[in-house]
């Protein structure tokens, strides 16, 4: 019995330590570091810096993968050095632009319609769709093997949604459910995730029965993994937004350079036109009226289905993570002490 006791103690100790290390790693993992920009080193480039923002629609590495080639193209072709600035949330991107921390920002259609005019912002460009128009679609998806065939089948089901400030989430709550005779109360549960790709992953791993994302994101996963159950009507594509009345030479340069991109040109497709992989190919000029023409009205914001979580990078989030990490370390020490005492008895 004594011979079995010692290996058992070490096995339990290893399990305790391993579990706590995994929890600690989970708490402290804020995502991979964004890749460095290519081109001329910043220290050697004395040109004026123009910072461009982007809403947190995708994970940071995916945002850099999509938008950094555009910054590299603008810096190489223009008279300024362009840098990408990430945001902690959709609203944070709007505030960055209002405060002048960025000169322009890639927005979402719904967040612009809700906040843009009141913050003195104006759209100047929007991506073209494959049909040449500047529109996007949201889709309700399910796993390929799921029995879900219509929106009505969502009764009693779990649904994953992107940010509350995304058009996709509002289309689902304001239009999609009602058209099928359902309300949020008819669902088992609804959870909002920070990124569209996360919604797809949670559907694929079975934690949720269905999800809502931009159609362009659903296409990235192909028809073998997920299946489209419902599709929204067209809504304005994500615009490039500036402060209204800003006629600085840098902005004029950026707009003209972006308009000159041609996804059909192999030279552009190899670099800056990769923007089309995350939004849609090509760009066209955009007016405020275009963004007010279609989609759920942002005037009356729907009540959140679940309490809002603090955005990643916020002070509250850092406090929660630090507290969680401290508790985990204490658990490790106490667990180890208990095991040592048990071994000595």
Defining traits:
345 residues; alpha/beta; six-stranded mixed sheet; five-stranded mixed sheet; 12 helices
What does this structure look like?
- The protein has 345 residues and is α/β, with parallel strands linked by helices.
- It is built from 12 helices and 13 strands.
- Residues 23-39, 273-283 and 286-317 have low confidence and may be disordered.
Topology of this structure?
Layout: H1 2-28, E1 49-54, H2 60-77, E2 81-85, H3 90-99, E3 104-106, H4 109-115, E4 121-127, E5 135-136, E6 138-143, E7 158-161, H5 167-179, E8 189-192, H6 196-204, E9 210-214, H7 215-225, E10 226-231, E11 235-236, E12 240-243, H8 249-259, H9 266-269, H10 275-278, E13 283-285, H11 288-292, H12 315-344
Parallel strand pairs: 1-2, 1-3, 7-8, 7-9
Antiparallel strand pairs: 3-12, 4-12, 4-13, 5-11, 6-9, 6-10
Helix pairs in contact: 1-12, 6-7
Main pleated sheet: 6 strands, mixed
Instruction: For the largest sheet, list the strands in their spatial order.
Output: 2-1-3-12-4-13
Query: What percent strand?
Result: 15-25%
What oligomeric state do the depicted chains represent? single chain
Helix content: 40-55%
Radius of gyration from the alpha-carbon trace, in angstroms: 24 Å
Reading the helices and strands in chain order gives HEHEHEHEEEEHEHEHEEEHHHEHH
Q: How many helices in DSSP terms?
A: 12
What's the rounded overall pLDDT mean?
Answer: 76
Terminal residue distance:
14 Å
Unreliable stretches, pLDDT < 50, 5 or more residues? 23-39, 273-283, 286-317
Strand elements, count:
13
Return the structural class. alpha/beta
Shape designation: globular
């Amino acid at each position: 019995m004594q011979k079995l006791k010692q290996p058992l103690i070490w096995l339990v100790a290893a399990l305790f330590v391993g579990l706590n290390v995994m929890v600690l790693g989970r708490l402290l993992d804020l995502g991979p570091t964004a890749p460095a920009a290519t081109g001329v080193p910043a220290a050697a480039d004395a040109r004026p810096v123009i910072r461009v923002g982007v809403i947190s629609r995708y994970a940071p590495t995916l945002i850099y993968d999509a938008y950094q080639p555009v910054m590299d193209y603008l810096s190489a072709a223009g008279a300024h050095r362009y840098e990408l600035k990430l945001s902690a949330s959709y609203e944070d991107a709007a505030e960055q632009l209002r405060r002048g921390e960025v000169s322009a920002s890639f927005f979402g259609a719904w967040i612009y319609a809700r906040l843009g005019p009141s913050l003195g912002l104006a759209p100047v460009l929007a991506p073209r769709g494959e049909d040449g128009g500047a529109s996007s679609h949201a889709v309700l998806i399910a796993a390929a093997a799921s029995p879900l065939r219509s929106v009505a089948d969502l009764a009693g089901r779990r649904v994953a949604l992107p940010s509350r400030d995304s058009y996709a989430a509002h289309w689902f709550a304001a239009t999609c459910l009602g058209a099928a005779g359902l309300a949020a109360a008819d669902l088992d549960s609804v959870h909002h995730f920070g990124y569209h790709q996360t919604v797809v992953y949670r559907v694929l791993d079975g934690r949720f029965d269905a999800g809502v994302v931009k159609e362009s994101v659903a296409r990235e996963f192909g028809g073998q993994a997920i299946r489209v159950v419902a599709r929204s009507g067209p809504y304005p594509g994500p615009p490039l937004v500036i402060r209204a009345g800003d006629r600085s030479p840098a902005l004029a340069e950026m707009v003209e350079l972006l308009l000159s991109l041609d996804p059909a040109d192999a030279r552009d497709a190899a670099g800056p036109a990769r923007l089309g992989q995350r939004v849609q190919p090509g760009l066209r000029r955009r007016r405020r009226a275009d963004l007010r023409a279609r989609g759920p009205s942002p005037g009356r914001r729907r009540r959140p289905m679940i309490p809002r979580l603090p955005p990643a990078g916020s002070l509250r989030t850092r406090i929660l993570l630090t507290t969680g990490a401290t508790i985990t370390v204490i658990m490790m020490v106490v667990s180890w002490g208990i095991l040592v005492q048990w071994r000595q008895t």
